[in-house]
Amino acid sequence: MPEGIPIPGKAKPTERQVRRAQLGRSEDWRFPRKRYEIGKDHPGIIVCPRCHAISEQKRWYVDEEKYSDLRNVPGVEEVVCPGCRRIDAHVYEGEVLLESPLLISRKNEAVNLIHSTEEEARLDNPISRVASIEVRDGVIYVLTTTRWLAERIGKEFAKALGGHLTIDKPPREKFVRVHWIRDRQGE
Fold first, then answer.
1. Exposed end of the chain (fewer CB within 10 Å): N or C?
2. Per-range mean pLDDT, top range of 19-28, 29-38, 54-63, 162-171
3. Within 10 A of 145 (CB to CB), how many other CB atoms are there?
4. Domain layout of the chain by residue ranges
5. CA–CA separation, 133 and 94 (whole Å)
6. Half-sphere exposure of 166 (CA within 13 A, CB side)
7. Pair 154, 145: CB distance under 8 Å
8. Angle subtended by helix axes 107-124 and 147-161, to nearest 10
9. How far is the C-alpha of 187 from the C-alpha of 93, rounded, in Å?
């Protein structure tokens, strides 16, 4: 009996099984298996040499004073944190588009607001990082490693400068698109 056809009294087939029954096994390459990162367990204290995050008992946090004390302690392992690994692997969960003629004259202030919002979010969750900031034709594109940071940046711009904020969360996706727009007079 084909995989995609439900059998009475059995569990409902998954979406992948139904599609496989419709398309056939030759089309299985369209639905690759997800590969999850299986990390090595690191007991004890871990520090990230790039962003200076610290992990104790599998919980990452930021404390610059403690990092400087732990840096030279024997037995403390240096491992790249999940936030830095996401940036290296180009895994982004948030995209922010900031659009306004005001940003042309206040580009430095806008970038400073983005970085200060990142620093506040990073104290709560060190994985929340800004991966890239691009400025093109008065529009600022920001990619973030978490969707909460993207929403937070959009809300900070809406609070500081007014305008219209749109947050688009595609269904069943761990991704968010934030679009903030303001014309010269405000909205």
1. N
2. 162-171
3. 24
4. 1-35, 45-80, 89-181
5. 12
6. 9
7. no
8. 130
9. 28
pTM: 0.73
Question: Which of 3.30.1890, 3.40.50, 3.30.530, 3.30.70 is the CATH number of 89-181?
Answer: 3.30.70
Mean pLDDT of 133-137: 89
Tokens 């400025």 — which residue?
135
Query: By C-alpha distance, which of 158, 162, 161, 69 is closest to 178?
Result: 158
